[in-house]
Amino acid sequence: MIAFDFEYFKPETVDETIHTYRQLQLQRKRSIYIAGGTEFISRARLGQVHADAVIDLKGIPECNVLEVQGGQAVIGSAIRLTQLEEAGLFPLLGTHSRKIADHTSRNRITLGGNIAGETVYRELVLPLLISDCEVIVAKKSGLEATSIHDIFNQHLLLQDGEFIVQFRVSVADTTLPFISVKKTAFSSFDYPLVSIAAIRKEERTLIALGGVCGYPFRSREIEESLNNQSLSIPDRIHNAIGHLPAPMLDDFRALRDYREFVLKHALNEVLHTLEGGPEI
Ligand SMILES: Cc1cc2nc3c(=O)[nH]c(=O)nc-3n(C[C@H](O)[C@H](O)[C@H](O)COP(=O)(O)OP(=O)(O)OC[C@H]3O[C@@H](n4cnc5c(N)ncnc54)[C@H](O)[C@@H]3O)c2cc1C
Question: What pTM value is reported for the model?
């Protein structure tokens, strides 16, 4: 049960959404955007979040787009994970998505919700980071296109009242060879010990990692190390792990040493799959 009352709004345009948020703010009401609503409901039940109003983004047509437009795969932020998988528009994103939660939950969870959510995993940002996608953000001043690298650093960098409308990925990048790896400790639908999305582009492996540190990331130094063809694969992996941007997670799912062991195996799988050759 949610132990507080809140108003519910489901605007039908981006302008109406921003206006609704602004009006509630003027009335000194705390409002929160929702899409799938799964995280909001669980956190509200646990008393971890409070809102006077929720604004549902699912009624906005632009947030529900899932199609190719002018050489870009356009994916609305309110698209549910099962839709991503079924549409096949961006196979790496769909494959990575299929590894999150059970089918019933994936039928509610949205792409925007996964990336904006409070968990440290936010696994679906990984395919977006390696495809250098463009993000359409709704601001007071209107819609603005920005690079994923400018709007996501450990978490989304949105100002008060802003929300994500769409992600736009070059169609050429959606067709590149890819691998999606997720290693869990307990069941296959658990949060990851290691989550990796990688593509092969212009004879380089581009890679983003989650579950390893306290946030998902893509690191230039790690990519340089993994692509250093003058070294053996074990040495490249050893060097890459030396460039982790933060301490490795050490929690009830896995101690640091075990997580590092799993990461090494996962990176080995990635390099051998994308570069060819047997795994060692
Ligand atoms: C059973 C289960 C298993 C899970 N397993 C995993 C897993 O393995 N890996 C993983 O990464 N995650 C996992 N999650 C977490 C899940 O991806 C997040 O909780 C996600 O936030 C839920 O999406 P939602 O659309 O329901 O979010 P909502 O509850 O609608 O919103 C969550 C947050 O995101 C914000 N938000 C939503 N949409 C937007 C937008 N367009 N722009 C800006 N802010 C927005 C909301 O304001 C809110 O703060 C799991 C969740 C469940 C329930």
Answer: 0.96
Q: Is the CB of 93 under 6 A from ligand 1?
A: no
Contact 129, 203 (CB under 8 A): no
For residue 37, give the amino acid letter.
G
Q: Distance from CA of residue 177 to its chain's centroid?
A: 20
| Cα 104 to ligand 1 centre (Å) | 14
CA 26 / ligand 1 centre spacing (Å) = 27
Distance from residue 259's CA to the centre of ligand 1 (Å): 24
The helices-and-strands tally (H runs, E runs) of the chain is 12, 13
Report the atom number in ligand 1 closest to the C-alpha of 182.
8
Per-residue pLDDT tens for 145-168? 999 999 999 999 999 999 999 999
For the Cβ of 161 lying below 6 angstroms from any atom of ligand 1, the answer is no
Q: In what order do the strands lie in the sheet with 72-76?
A: 66-69, 72-76, 163-170, 134-139, 142-147
9 forms beta bridges with 55
pLDDT tens for 67-76 read: 999 999 999 9
